[in-house]
Amino acid sequence: MAGAQPGVHALQLKRVSVPESLRTGDKFIKWDDTDLLDVSLIKDTRNGRFAKTPKEAKLRELLDVGTLEGKLEDRTLTVVSGADMVNITYLNFTAFSEEVAKEWAEELFSLASNLLAQNMSRESCLEKMYTRLMLQLTAEGGIPVKKWVKTANVKQIHLNMSVQMLSYSVFQYLPGAKIRPYLTVEQMTDFLNNRQRDPRLNEILYPPLKAEQVQGLVEKYEPDTMLSRRGQISVEGFSRYLSGEENSIIPPEKLDQSEDMTLPLSHYFINSSHNTYLTAGQLAGNSSVEMYRQVLLSGCRCIELDCWKGRTADEEPFITHGFTMTSEISFKEVIEAIAESAFKTSPFPVILSFENHVDSPKQQAKMAEYCRSIFGDALLTDPLEKYPVSEKQISTLSLSLSLSLTHTHTHTHTHTHTHKSVSLELLKESPVEFVEYNKLQLSRIYPKGTRVDSSNYMPQVFWNAGCQLVALNFQTIDLPMQLNLGIFEYNGKCGYRLKPEFMRRTDKQFDPFTQNTVDGIVAHTLSVKIISGQFLSDKRIGVYVEVEMFGLPVDTKRKAFKTKTSQCNAVNPVWDEDPVVFKRVVLPTLALLRIAVYEDNGKFIGHRIIPVCAIRPGYHYISLRNEKNQTLTVPSIFIYTEVKDYVPDTFADVIEALSNPILYVSLMEQRANQLAALTQEEGAQEADGEEVSEFNSSITAGLTNTVIHSSSVCAEDALFTPGSHDNTCVCVCVCVCVCVSEGDAQTVDELKQLKAYLREQKRQYKELKELMRKHNKKTSELINEHASKQKQLRSDFLRRRSRCEKLSELKEQQQQQLLALRQEQFYSEKYLKREHVKLVITPCVSR
Questions:
Q1: C-alpha distances in Å from residue 318, one per residue of 137, 157, 331
Q2: What are the tens digits of pLDDT across the range 252-269?
Q3: For this structure, is 357 an active site residue?
Q4: Contact call for residues 304 and 355 (beta carbons, < 8 A)
Q5: How far apart are CA 437 and CA 454, in angstroms?
Q6: Which stretches make up the PI-PLC Y-box domain (predicted)?
Q7: What is d(CA 812, CA 801) in angstroms, rounded to the nearest whole number?
Q8: N or C: which end of the chain has fewer CB within 10 A?
Q9: Single pTM value for the model
Q10: What string of DSSP letters covers 419-435?
Q11: 168 three-state secondary structure
């Protein structure tokens, strides 16, 4: 792929697999079933000292009865869930042994944090909805018939909509698909390699699919085994493939950790939080220790601690937003929460941004002691002896390398904090210098103090300048925060994204306000066509889709496209409109595509944010997500995308000829036939008289306008004959030598009667005629040669296509003959059995 790293990434993502111990179940103290918990809503699982045990003594005694092994907190499993980072709920389970509680805590968290599960396919979403219904039993333990029928109808409706939509939007482009309601392996292979394959991929590193591989897909998705054995896939099977995991809009390697993680911190965009402890506005509201856990679990790698001097007798420092009405939380509890949650979802360094207002040496010493004792070896207190650390050492040394207060590179130790307004002014005045500064130094940008409602600024502005720590208010899920969640969802969700190469190399300069292509970066052309929607809302309302792009100023297109509003149809709206084309995306590695769906009154339904450099071309279902970046189970849209390298308009014809040679050859043949009609020999003979008359008139005009001197005069007159094929120009030079005598000057008519003049005129006319004859002959030969080659190429192509059609007809004929033979056999057996029955019954009757 253009701009991609060399080599093929070895996928390390683990598929969703439930351990056998969780399948069979273990013994827990039982409560009555009340509700279902979606695993995707699980934020964390805790066991041991961080589990939430009951505070009431009577309840603790009840949980300790019987032959239970271990302490209560070690047998307790706390499941933390919630729709966002602020509104959190806790479910507590008590096991009969410590090992069972520990295993369930680890396995549940592994399932909840699985990246493939968080990016499940359309088919998996429908299966998930079906499973949820099957688990919702009635009071008698039965399945609600009403809900069962409703869900069954939904699945059938989805299949019918898919078949109708595919017949309309996809099958019409496939040769032969209109005639037969299925695709052969050859047609499927052609579709996958020409429609679904990224044209930017290297064919050596990423070879096109072969028929054997496509046959495996057919066997996987085709429900009719007879068709799959014959190498055919029906519309239903084709629809299942389009909604399956192999056809996701994002390739799995983009979700996996695939970027170089051995470079200095200044070479990465780092997921950062501002005033991490707040759960609401900046002036009032609660501060929460839990926010540190939730922010770290979401992938954030830079958090902020506003430390203030303790006023109580024990002089314990606390964290709050100074001089406001926000609540206070214990500094020690925050450090414990960070130590417990820092590396659950990412093994890479966490940066603590201390805003220290503690002026007491005693309390400062207490803060330092808490950090040393609680973090232990995880706290980096001295520069590393060896840099960089290899990726193999990260898993074993993450505790000793992870919490860094300074940059570890010897020349890039400065860490600058500026609020948004100051940084924006610096960016406008010195954009190139600001980018150069961020190549070696860490810049942390935070919201302006006037954002008391905890709203966020657009982080894309500062990503364009290479700022690493663009801190946002995680408690507010607005559009800027949605973009932040979207960009850090990739590269293993580790909280680090590698900056483009020209933002890291000191020998290259970059202007974020550039209007031209960037040296070393291939610009992209992106086309997005919104085809249809599925179950966007259960209301009888109209819906519409907006498409927009965020990136460099030259790439940003806010609300670039908006579909028409469907007429009271949110179940299966279809939009037959032209695609939106982003002609030139200068920096695709920093560009984000956002597709959002709204009700006709402007209410948000769902969206999806996708990096442009990760988009797969072709037909895809996109499962929508809510504003908190959580997958909506049912709503989705069906789109067609084209992604290719940008080609300027001046080279568009050349690229078109290379990409579609058959069309180019047919066009050349058409032009050759048109030229042949203009370059026939008969037409050339008829034009000879006109050529001679033009020749004579030109000579006459040249002689008439000649001033005769006592020396020789050379008059040149060029006769241009436009060629029919190559615009060849024939130039004839006439040299007239006139000797001036002392007598009277001769007139032009008298000069024309001279034998020398007539002889020269005749000779030149013969030369001109011979030259034109040779030219016409060569032109005809060249046209005939090209026509024969084109005819041969076309006949070869038609022969191969005819052979394929004959083979298909032969297969169809064989199938019909086999069917007729089977029918004949069936009726013969039926007739013979009837005769046998008659023979048996007749003797019995006679008796």
A1: 48, 57, 5
A2: 888 999 899 999 999 999
A3: no
A4: yes
A5: 29
A6: 420-504
A7: 16
A8: C
A9: 0.73
A10: EHHHHHHHHHH-HHHHH
A11: helix
Mean pLDDT of 515-544: 91
Domains of the chain: 20-118 (2.30.29.240), 170-247 (1.10.238.10), 265-503 (3.20.20.190), 524-646 (2.60.40.150), 684-804 (no CATH)
Please tell me which residue in 274, 407, 524, 620 is annotated as part of the active site.
274
As beta bridge partners, residue 526 has: 582, 643
Q: Give phi and psi for 300, each to the nearest 5.
A: -70, 140
CA 512, CA 500: separation in Å to the nearest integer? 12
Show the beta-strand stretches assigned E in 688-829: none
Q: How many Å apart are CA 254 and CA 239, to the nearest integer?
A: 24
CB neighbour list of residue 689: distance below 8 Å, 6 or more residues apart: none
Cβ atoms < 10 Å from Cβ of 481: 20
Tokens found for residue 252? 């799995």
Q: Which of 816, 705, 787, 623 is nearest to 119 (CA)?
A: 623
Q: According to the 3-state scheme, what is the secondary structure of 248-262?
A: CCCCHHHHCCCCCCC
Mean pLDDT value of segment 464-486: 95
More confident residue, 710 or 299: 299
94: three-class secondary structure by DSSP? strand
Task: Round to whole Å and give the CA distance between 591 and 800.
Answer: 44
**Rounded Cα–Cα distance for residues 653 and 636 (Å):** 37
Residue with tokens 């896939």: 233
Hey, CA dihedral for 18, 23, 28, 33, is it positive or negative? positive
Contact present, 58 and 312 (Cβ < 8 Å) = no
Query: How far is residue 467's CA from residue 482's CA, in Å, rounded to a whole number?
Result: 18
> What are the structure tokens assigned to 783, written together?
């046209």
Number of helical (H) and strand (E) elements in the chain, helices listed first:
26, 24
User: Taking Cα atoms as reference points, which of 277, 265, 259 lies closest to residue 301?
Assistant: 265
The separation between the first and the last C-alpha atoms of the chain, rounded to the nearest angstrom, is: 88
Tell whether the model's pLDDT for residue 542 goes beyond 70: yes
Return the residue matching tokens 């308009």: 649
Alpha-helix residue ranges (DSSP H) falling in 744-754: 748-752
* Residue 329: Cβ-neighbour burial (10 angstroms; 0-12, 13-18, 19+): buried
The pLDDT tens digits of the residues spanning 566-615 come to: 988 898 899 978 999 999 999 999 999 999 999 999 999 999 999 999 99
For residue 411, count other CB atoms closer than 10 A to its CB: 10
Say whether pLDDT at 649 is over 80: no
Find out whether 14 and 255 touch, Cβ atoms under 8 Å.
no
Q: Which helix (H) or strand (E) holds 112?
A: helix 98-112
Residues in contact with 276: Cβ distance below 8 Å, sequence separation at least 6, in sequence order: 291, 292, 295, 300, 303, 304, 305, 474
What DSSP element (H or E) covers 48? none
Burial 427-457 (b: 16+ CB within 10 A, else e): beeebeebbbbbbbbbbbbbbeeebeebbbb
Residue of 321, 415, 524, 607 marked active site: 321
CA distance 474 to 277: 10
CB atoms within 10 A of CB 619: 24
321 carries an active-site annotation: yes
- Which uninterrupted H or E stretch holds 76? strand 76-82
Nearest to 342 by CA among 41, 44, 14, 52: 44
Return d(Cα 443, Cα 438) in angstroms, integer: 7
Give CA–CA dist 262/266, Å, rounded.
Answer: 11
Residue 727 region by backbone torsions, left for phi larger than 0, else alpha for psi between -120 and 50, else beta? left
Q: Which of 622, 685, 270 is nearest to 459 (CA)?
A: 270
What pLDDT, on the 0 to 100 scale, is given for residue 439?
Answer: 93
The answer to whether residues 86 and 57 touch, using CB atoms and an 8 Å cutoff, is no
The distance from CA 455 to its chain's CA centroid, rounded to whole angstroms, is 28
Distances (CA, A) of 364 to 6, 321, 374: 49, 18, 15
Contact 496, 302 (CB under 8 A): no
